[in-house]
Amino acid sequence: MTLELSLNQQPAHARQGSSIGQPLTRRDGFLKVTGGARYAADNHPPGMLYAVLAVSSIARGRVAALDTEAAKAHKGVVEVMTPKNRPALAIDPDAKDNPFMFRLDLLQNDQVRYPNQSIAVVIAETLEAATEGAALLSPRYEALPARVGLDGAKSFVPRGVGIGGPAVQHKGDVETGLRSAKTRIEATYETPAQYHNAMEPHAIVVAWDGDRLSIDTPSQGLAMAQGRIAGLFGIAPENIHIRSPFLGGGFGSKGMISGPQVLGILAARLVGRPVKLVLRREQMYGPVGHRAPTRQTLRMGMDGEGRLTAIDHHARTASSTFDDFFEPAADASHTLYASPAIATSHDAVRLDTGTPLFMRAPGEATGSIALESAIDEAAHACGMDPLEFRLRNYAEVEPMTGKPFSSKALRECYRQAAETFGWASRPLQPRLMRDADGFLTGWGMGTATFPALMFQAEARAVLRSDGSGLMETGAQDMGQGAWTAFAQIAADGLGLDIDRVEFRAGSSDLPNAGIAGGSGHTATAGMAIHNAGAAVIARLADLATGNEASPLFGAGNEGVLARGGRLYRRDDESRGESYAEILMRAGLTEIEAHGKGAPDPASQETYAKHAHGAVFAEVKVDPDFGQIRVTRLVGAFAAGRVINPRLVRSQYYGGMIWGISFALHEEAITDRRSGRIQNANLAEYHVPVNADVPSVEALLVHEDDPYVNALGIKGVGEIGITGTAGAIANAVWHATGVRPRRFPIRIEDLL
Ligand code: MOS
């Protein structure tokens, strides 16, 4: 385990000086491509049994009968867990003390609230026996009609959206703004339900030892998972050890511990043996969250110069019948375009689905599709180029709050991306460009944005008398490169070359690194690492500057520099000594210190903090058959300090490719009679493959931000998905003259 939890490959590009900013390859890359990286489901503790979920095939009603006898009679089946024999929990899984505490389906009764809800767990000596046992349960249901679709049920205004922001907000009077406008547009856009579909399904391997728990499971937030499990089982969080060194993707679905993961823990309790439970692909379409569908109406007014006089953005969305996550789509209109009047509002319906949850850029992804499409329509209505229109309405301060931006290099993003793309030669009118093969060609653009969030994190730094260093924090790497970026920050914080730094993460017995979500992990845990490094260097400097035998004697803590494993005098860099010499003279084998990362409350009050970007898209459309191909994407993003350009670019690519998916591929289709999802598999739930992904370019625009945090990091995990789908839709219009109003864009919409 130690090997997996502390990755110490010598990076090829490591060099003297700053590690931050180097395009290092992933420290965990070698383990991953050689199969050496052990994911949760790869673990097999001795005596382990296999647990398989039986899930509901109805959307609403109750389970009237389960043939548990037939299942138990099957060879190899050890036990069947149902509401009748499920071990007791310390709290009701339907209890909700805070907005982050989502209600779980843990066999509390016979009710069915959505398709694919767990109704029993079969535990057996083999995976095959457990799977067959689950099939033998042959459930009988009393079904009620499923509530599906955004029109089907009575709508209401939720108390909050996302994790609780006001559902209705306004600045100025949009009706007055619209009345005074010379030009107006109004348009409605629909976005579909999407499911996270991480490559690695949710999985857990769990062993009880008395009241202690040993768990391998993918988690984007180890301490939160630990706390939730502790609450459910009434045990101390420190009695729960969760290892999550590698995640095969998360996208938000592994932010909170899900019901099936807790069912694995319950199953292990019931049988008194270690248990492994892995979701099948179709079982992920329900209990682990999804992106809710939206229908958004935008109204905009413009004066004679193309300046916005009003933006009204209304979003209808959906939640489950039993919990309260609402996709904050309309809030996308708070940030990007200056307007004297802005109104955003949400209403919602309750459907018989699993509770929607955070999914990569929740709110911003869906909202920016509608907003960027509407902005394109508004520009055309004013007879203006879409880039010129956006610059005319450029927000010099955050439109909704009037706060100055901590930094905003969006003009530079527009300029660099437009120039690289060749935007200047774009004809204003649609349907004017054809390529040599006769395909209609169109160019479109969208603006990208995502808030620069920070949460709370801690780290522990150690310097050792052999000249090496250790940095520990329970960070989570979903594939984004946390193992590498944090080691780079640690190396600089400790004043060591990166090959002298051991970095430990991915385990709940390390300091709490907060959540890998909200694009805030690098900033938050990175600041904890940076501060822990600074604190341990300060202790080391105290040892040296206070000792007459040291060449640093009398320099004072401020008077020394740490670099390459040595402390130097700031006023005379020829005078210094190594960490090892300082520690050995003091008779110490190591010294340690802790650091925290958190948002700065003062600058939080003063500044609006967002990353920005611009995405330009080229599409080609078959004039006869309406088939759409994205042929080129160019994005430019400004998100503060870049810790590792290779990893950051890769995050932008991932987001932009998801934008292609949003525009042209992804949609979970619900059967209107049964309420079941018809395409709950990767064959029919379309995501882009290599053939769908053309040339994608991501430009990193320089941006210094002195306010977001001392390292100047804003976060890059989610911004790439914003802006891109709108840019593609706008390119489709430019190619065809037809406005896409529902996503994914279908061939029949263009005919
Ligand atoms: Mo993300 S949806 O913040 O994991």
TrEMBL record:
Ranges that cross the membrane: none
Compositionally biased residues, Polar residues: 1-22
MF terms (GO), sorted A to Z: iron ion binding; oxidoreductase activity
InterPro entries to which the protein is assigned, alphabetical: Ald_Oxase/Xan_DH_a/b (IPR000674), Ald_Oxase/Xan_DH_a/b_sf (IPR036856), Ald_Oxase/xanthine_DH-like (IPR016208), AldOxase/xan_DH_MoCoBD1 (IPR008274), AldOxase/xan_DH_MoCoBD2 (IPR046867), AldOxase/xan_DH_Mopterin-bd_sf (IPR037165)
Superkingdom to which the source organism belongs: Bacteria
Listed Gene3D superfamilies: Aldehyde oxidase/xanthine dehydrogenase, a/b hammerhead, Aldehyde oxidase/xanthine dehydrogenase, molybdopterin binding domain
Domain named Aldehyde oxidase/xanthine dehydrogenase a/b hammerhead: residues: 34-145
Sequence segments annotated as region (Disordered): 1-25
One Pfam family recorded for the sequence: Ald_Xan_dh_C
Protein name: Xanthine dehydrogenase YagR molybdenum-binding subunit
